[in-house]
Structure formats: structure tokens, C-alpha cells
Amino acid sequence: MSGPDTSTDAVTPTRVGVVVLTMGRRPEDLARGIRSVLDQVDVEVDVVCVGNGWDPTTADPPLPPDVRTVHLPENLGIPAGRNRGVPHVVGDVLFFLDDDAFLPSATFLADGCRLLAEHPDLGLVQPRVVDPTGLTAPRRWIPRIRKGDPAHSSDVFSCWEGAVLMPRPAFDATGGWADPFFYAHEGIELAWRVWDVGHRAWYAGDLEAAHPVIDPARHEYYYRLNARNRVWLARRNLPAVFVPIYVGSWTAIQVLRWYRDPAALRAWFGGWRAGWREDPGPRRPLHWRTVWRMTRAGRPPVI
């Protein structure tokens, strides 16, 4: 039996293609996030900054010279904006970062790439998210029904989208983020698609990304797009028998959650109706074997 490899040949670092999405409204946060990526060690990063309805070449302060830019004259929405950045980076691993998030540890990407290398069945990794000022993180940042300890890692069936690591072949196999969604629930569809192509989506409680605690309802379209995209999730992805079950369970949940807020419910049901009336894009139902795998892992796609 041969002994351990004691050669001193340098190991080629993993190259990570990083897509940073921004509308140009948070220049200081954007600069901090990009700097936290460029400061990563033991990996090679290839970074593109995608300006969604904004030209990143006009950034003040200017972006570092080794960061490429993509200018989308029109705001195409969050998932479509991320997708537009992917062809402009190289690397076997992709990392998506929103402009108000950053990486507190310089080994974040190396640690994440090591996790992917040790577990080749993983197709998506979402880190634990913390507020940099110490505020208590919202429970929604832990993408599982039984939240438990935020430091506990587990399989998941959705993801918080602000910092996501994926092997590029897995991303390509899924077809990418759901372009039509614009905002909300694209992380659920991406996680479902990861499971459907034979991989697992993973919440890594031992990896940490930073993001301020912000009320998502600050967006005027929050309630409407949450409801529309919940219906679209079902119409695009679920076997037909599950579509009314999934939509019905979430309708009941939202009524119980917001029955004291009639304005929120009105906006939500406006989006619900739009979800049935408007075109959600191509339909690709999950395979039955995927439904079975998800069920065995603790989350059948009915809620």
C-alpha cells in the first residue's frame, strides 16, 4: 500500500465565477461586497458586476479594474439579472452575491468549494446568514420548516438567494434562475430543479454570509409577487395532481398569517389571480422520482 502523497507540487486553486447583482442604489454596500470577494484566499475569482437598469461603469467609487461589468439598460428583475451575468464569468463553481451582502471570512469560498468537492451530490449551497450589526436574523433566512439551530446544516428545498454557491454543471442542468419571476420565490424553484437533476440543495450552517436585517415588505410589489410566483411555482414545476394542493395550502397559510391586515391580503390575492391569468413561462414538472426523494428527505412538494 502506498503512503501519503508528500509531493510539494502546488494545487491549482478552484476558480469561482462570481456574479454580483446591483441596481446601483447602494454604492458603499456594493463596494464592500465586491471587496469581500476579491479578498478571498485559496481560490481564483472571476467577478462580473451586473447592473440591473444601471451602468456599473458609472459607479462612485469606481469598481476595481479586475471586475468586469454588464449593463442591462432595463431592470429585468433579480433572477434574470443573475442569469445574464453567468456567461461573462469562468469557473467550475458559480457564486451569486447580492449587493447588500458580503463575506465576513476570507476563506468562505475556499471552504464552500471544499464542501462541494467532498460531497459531489450537492448542487446548491446556501450559507447561514447573519446581520453584521448583531441583530437577530429572521427565521426566513433558514430555509426549512423546522428552523432549529441556525448553525445546524441540512438538506433544504428552497434557499435565501442573496449568497448562493453552485457547481456550474448543476446550474446549467437546472436551466438557471426563473427569469419570469422578477422577484420572490426564485430560490424555491432553483432548489427544486437542483433536486430534479439528481443533486441535493444544502443549508450550510458552518458557512457564514452577512446581510442586514431588512423588512422585505418594503417593496410595494412584495405581496403581489409573492402570491403570483407561488402560483407560478406550482404551474411551472409540480405534477398536475399537486398543483391545487400546493396552492391551496399556501393560500390557507397566508390567510391565517395576514387576516388582521386586509390591505396585505387584497394585494396578495391580486397577485394570486395574476398567477392563474398570466403566462408563467415553460412548464417542466418534477419527475416522480424527485417527488419521492424530496419526500424521503422530509419535504414533499405540497407545502
Automatic annotation (TrEMBL):
* InterPro entries per record: Glyco_trans_2-like (IPR001173), Nucleotide-diphossugar_trans (IPR029044)
Pathway(s) of this molecule: Cell wall biogenesis; cell wall polysaccharide biosynthesis
Q: Which residues form the Glycosyltransferase 2-like domain?
A: 19-155
Name of the protein in question: GT2 family glycosyltransferase
The source's superkingdom equals Bacteria
**Does the record's keyword annotation contain Glycosyltransferase?**
yes
Q: Does the keyword Protein biosynthesis apply?
A: no
Keywords associated with the record? Glycosyltransferase, Transferase
Recorded coiled-coil stretches:
none
Protein family membership:
Belongs to the glycosyltransferase 2 family.
Q: Which organism is it from?
A: Agromyces flavus
Per the UniProt record, the lineage of the source organism begins with:
Bacteria, Bacillati, Actinomycetota, Actinomycetes, Micrococcales
